[in-house]
Amino acid sequence: MTVQTKHFIEPSDIIAVRIDCNKCNASVSLAIGKELTLNALAICPNCKRPWLKRGDASIDLELQKCIEAINAATTALDGWKESSKAAAVDGFTFRLEVKDDLAQ
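-> structure tokens emitted (104 positions)
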């Protein structure tokens, strides 16, 4: 017999994004829905090693877009659920499947 477990989340289940230092393993969690200051992520707060390359090749703009997209998806889906209920439409639930780290 084979047993398979799958893990699903809704965008509203995402409460933070976590960044782990590859050098010292320190971590920083950034709350979703809060204003972010990605400049603070230029270096690890523990070992002071650089995390982000500053300038044109930086990833910080893409990180900001990702977090904004999660916020926008959550807001849009919450609004859609409310309007569906008001219109007596069953609709659907949007979920993301996440990999099971325990299996690795």
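Residues 7-88 form one domain.
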